[in-house]
TrEMBL record:
Originating species: Ooceraea biroi
Segments forming a coiled coil: none
Enzyme class label: hydrolase
Record keywords: Dipeptidase, Disulfide bond, Glycoprotein, GPI-anchor, Hydrolase, Lipoprotein, Membrane, Metal-binding, Metalloprotease, Protease, Transmembrane, Transmembrane helix, Zinc
The protein's name: Dipeptidase
One biological process term in Gene Ontology: proteolysis
Catalysed reactions, semicolon-separated: an L-aminoacyl-L-amino acid + H2O = 2 an L-alpha-amino acid
Membrane topology: Lipid-anchor; GPI-anchor
SUPFAM superfamilies, per the entry: Metallo-dependent hydrolases
Family: Belongs to the metallo-dependent hydrolases superfamily. Peptidase M19 family.
C-alpha cells in the first residue's frame, strides 16, 4: 500500500485489499511524516535561496534619473553613430571609469543591473536660462528618442504607466523621458505642453538656478521668489496634462508650497534624506511627512556627497541603505524608490560603482541587519518599481479627471522676468523678442525688485 491510498486517493484495489487496519494507520503516519518533511524542506530551501535581487525578476526596477544623454552631448555632440551602447564600456578610452568620472552606463551593465525602467534625462545647464535653453533641451529630447529607436531590441519608449510593465515583460528597458530644470520651460506653458507631446513625463521644477517662478535648493532655508502665482499655474497645468512634478533640486520652501497646491502625487526623482545627511538637495522630515500625505515617492539618490556628509571617509552602499531605511521608517515602504543619478555626478559609493550594482543593493536590504526594518519580497518590489508605477497611475487619473478643463493660457508677467534676469546680472530682455517685453513697466519692475531684495535679506 502506498501513500496514495493511505491518504485516501485512488489506488488499484488488488494492492489495497491486502492492507489491514493497523497497516493503514502506520502507512498514514509514515506518509504524513514524509509529506511534511518534503514540504518543510522545500519551504526551507525557498527561504534560504531567495535573494533580494530576485524581487527584480517579479517587478521592473525603475530608476528615476540617469544623465547619460548629457554625457552624449558633452562627449559626442549627440552623435550616436560614435556611441557603442551595446558594448561594455568599463574600460573604453572615452567612456571608461579611469578617463570619465561621470560615466557609469552602458547596455550590458544595465542588463546586469536588472534595470527594467529608466528615466533618461534631458538636461541643459543653467547658463542657458533666458537664452537657448529650449533649443538645447529639444536637442536632448531628440537624442534620447534616437537612442531608444537605435536599440529596439533593448529599449522601448514608454509614455504611460501601464506600458512600463508591458515593455519590461517583453525583455526591454521601459525608457521614459524627463526634463531636468524649470529653466528648460522658459516660463512658458506652451513649451510645457509640447514637451509632453514629445513624450516627456516629468519635469524637475528647477536645477541649481532659480527660475522666475520657483527657487532652487541653493537658497537653503531662505527664499527669493519661492513658488510664485505663475509657479502655481505651472503646477496646475502639469496636473491637468498628466506631467509628473519632480521636486528634486527645488528649495525646501518650494517643496512645501508645491505639496500644498498639487492635486496629484509628486515625485523626487533623485533625492535622499536630509535627516541622515543635511545637504539641501535632500528632503527634510516635515516634507517627507507631506509626501506620505500626498501619496508621492522619494527616489533615493546615490551620489556620494548627498548620502554621506562625513567627509573623512568614503561613501558606501551602507549610506544608501541608511537613507532608504530612514525614509521607510519615517513614512512607510510605500513612498520610497530608486533614483541613482548615474552619469549626472562624479562620485558614487563603494559597492554602487555603476548601473550593474542595483541587485547587490537589493540583496543587502534583504539581509535586514540588526536595527534595520525587515524587507519582504513585496517590500522590495515596492521599492523597485511598484511605488513609482502607483504614483504614475495616480497622476494619470488626476489628468483624466481634469479632462474637461481647458488649457491654461496665462503668461508670466514681464516684470517678473525683468527682475529675475536682473538678479542674474543679465540685461533684461536683451535676447528676447517676445511681445510681452514691450509692455514691461520698468519703474514697477524696479520697485518689485527692491521688495524682492528685502525678502532675501
Ligand atoms: Zn540633478
Amino acid at each position: 500500500m502506498g501513500c496514495i491510498s493511505a491518504l485516501g486517493m485512488a489506488e488499484p484495489s488488488n494492492i489495497s485489499k491486502y492492507c489491514t487496519g493497523k497497516m493503514v494507520y502506520i502507512n498514514v503516519a509514515v506518509c504524513l511524516a514524509v509529506l511534511l518533511f518534503v514540504i518543510g524542506l522545500s519551504v526551507g530551501l525557498s527561504v534560504n535561496t531567495f535573494k533580494g535581487r530576485d524581487a527584480l525578476d517579479s517587478t521592473p526596477l525603475i530608476d528615476g534619473h540617469n544623465d547619460l544623454p548629457h554625457n552624449l552631448y558633452q562627449k559626442l555632440s549627440n552623435n550616436l553613430s560614435a556611441f557603442h551602447f551595446e558594448k561594455d564600456l568599463r574600460n573604453d578610452v572615452v567612456w571608461g571609469s579611469t578617463v570619465c568620472s561621470s560615466c557609469y552606463t552602458d547596455l550590458p551593465r544595465l542588463i546586469e543591473g536588472k534595470v527594467g525602467g529608466q528615466f533618461w534625462v534631458a538636461y541643459t545647464a543653467c547658463g542657458s536660462q533666458y537664452k537657448d535653453s529650449v533649443q538645447l533641451t529639444l536637442r536632448q529630447i531628440d537624442v534620447i528618442r534616437r537612442l531608444i529607436h537605435r536599440y529596439p531590441a533593448n529599449l522601448q519608449l514608454v509614455t504611460d504607466a501601464a506600458d512600463i510593465e508591458v515593455a519590461w515583460r517583453s525583455g526591454k528597458i521601459a525608457s521614459m523621458i524627463a526634463v531636468e530644470g524649470g529653466h528648460s520651460l522658459d516660463s512658458s506653458l506652451a513649451i510645457l505642453r509640447l514637451y509632453y507631446d514629445l513624450g516627456v513625463r516629468y519635469v524637475t521644477l528647477t536645477h541649481t538656478c532659480n527660475t522666475p517662478w520657483a527657487d532652487a535648493s541653493t537658497v537653503n532655508d531662505g527664499y527669493v521668489y519661492n513658488l510664485t502665482e505663475f509657479g502655481q499655474t505651472i503646477i496646475h497645468e502639469m496636473n491637468r496634462i498628466g506631467m509628473l512634478i519632480d521636486l528634486s533640486h527645488v528649495s525646501h520652501n518650494v517643496m512645501k508650497e508645491v505639496l500644498a497646491v498639487t492635486r496629484a502625487p509628486i515625485m523626487f526623482s533623485h533625492s535622499s534624506a536630509f535627516g541622515v545627511c543635511g545637504n539641501y538637495r535632500n528632503v527634510p522630515d516635515d516634507v517627507l511627512h507631506a509626501v506620505k500625505k500626498n501619496n508621492g515617492i522619494v527616489m533615493v539618490n546615490f551620489y556620494s556627497v548627498f548620502v554621506n556628509c562625513n567627509t573623512s571617509r568614503n561613501a558606501t552602499m551602507q549610506d544608501v541603505v541608511d537613507h532608504i531605511n530612514y525614509i521607510r521608517n519615517l513614512i512607510g515602504v510605500d513612498h520610497v524608490g530608486i533614483g541613482g543619478d548615474y552619469d549626472g555626478v562624479n562620485s558614487m559609493p563603494e559597492g554602487l560603482e555603476d548601473v550593474s550594482k542595483y541587485p547587490d543593493l537589493f540583496d543587502r536590504l534583504y539581509e535586514s541587519r540588526e536595527g534595520e526594518p525587515t524587507w519582504t519580497k513585496e517590500d522590495l518590489e515596492k521599492l523597485a518599481g511598484r511605488n513609482f508605477i502607483r504614483v504614475f497611475q495616480a497622476v494619470e487619473s488626476v489628468r483624466d479627471s481634469l479632462s474637461s478643463e481647458p488649457p491654461r493660457e496665462d503668461i508670466i508677467a514681464g516684470d517678473e522676468l525683468y527682475i529675475a534676469q536682473k538678479n542674474e546680472g543679465l540685461n533684461p530682455g536683451a535676447c528676447q523678442t517676445a511681445k510681452e517685453w514691450n509692455g514691461v513697466n520698468v519703474t514697477d519692475a524696479e520697485q518689485k525688485e527692491t521688495r524682492t531684495k528685502r525678502h532675501q535679506a
